[in-house]
Amino acid sequence: MKAAERFNKLLEQSKQSPEFRTEKAILGLTEEILAQMKRQDVSRTELARRLGKNPAFVTKLLRGNNNFTFDTVVRIARALEMEFVPHMMPEGWQSRIFDFSSARAEEESKPLAEVKREYTASVNTSTGGDYAEIALVA
Question: What is the mean pLDDT of residues 90-108?
Fold first, then answer.
């Protein structure tokens, strides 16, 4: 077996480990927080102020090597005027979540049912054809 093949086999095996999945979740959450901060033009210093913490605390959290508690995530979400919504899905599925409200549907002059149909929440990537819909309506 060539070195590249061995490496790829080890990589695929490691992707199944709880440690890999934990790090992937932490990195994804960190990226989501940073993206929201950028959208809202909220600096790390401002987020720290909103949390009642020092900027070093926020820097440590956002390095990507922090094991968040639900309490911390909820507080960060609230500081960004957001809601934290945990989400689980079957193994092998890929998730896409779209948030929309009935007000947004009205603004787009589309019936809510039509807007809702446009949003697919989860796609089973192992079969490529199974869909599940989760309506997130405010």
Answer: 65
